[in-house]
Amino acid sequence: MEAEKTTHGVALLCRLLKVARSSFYTWLAGEQARTARKAADDALAHEITVLHIASKHTYGVPRIHAELCRLERRVNRKRVERIMRERNIAGITRRRRRSLTRPAKKTVPATDLLGRDFSASAPGQRLVGDITYVASDEGWLYLATWLDLATREIVGYSMADHHRASLVVDALNMAVGRSDLQPGCIVHSDRGSEYTSNELRCEIGQLGLRQSMGRTGSCYDNAAAESFLALLKEEIGTRHWPDRATARSEIFAFIETFYNRKRLRKHPVWGYLTPLEIRQRHEQGHALAA
Questions:
Q1: Which residues cross the membrane (predicted)?
Q2: Whether this model's pTM surpasses 0.85
């Protein structure tokens, strides 16, 4: 009607289309507001796209909204969801991964000290560990990690072309060296042969820590550790590397520069923060209490 009103009268067009003239003039009066909303949506979509690219195309609506709030952008979450849906901007959905767990023979597993309670009141109280692998033209590269349940920070990790017990021992020694583990800290894992080995048990005993293990065949008993490795495989994107050195470099960058320092997760008390920021909050609280 707007395009034809110079050729035919508005009254005639409204009568032909069975539209009230008042409705047409109301729509016409709102044209400026609609143009302004579209421009604002386009500007917000640009910000969302930048944040999505910075997250390596992994963030969905909750973390994109949290990032906007951190940038002091007051925007409704439903509006973010609508804009992302309209422009086909979506986060990563995790896939199930094949387990490396191979129960050791003739070993006595440690007691489960967590009971699927993957929380901790302070850093250095509870660690969970697991192993995964990635493919390269040179063969498999294995990765062992230890995650602090209070901060969800990866405090120790190790990579090698094997998954013998020394792989998880090296990762644990890294955790000891870079974080303040409390006496009697629980180190929890599955019952794989690497974790039931004498080498790891001796190391845990010498460090004054306590070993804990979930049940055989129950992935939920070590869900926090498995969840991180599933997240890494999905968000890092690459499925096959040309060599182990390249894979090692990209995994290092993901853990150290993105996951620990930039990737947001929802803390039950403090809201969306990075693992590093959560650790700093705990340290600040400890300093104030002292």
A1: none
A2: no
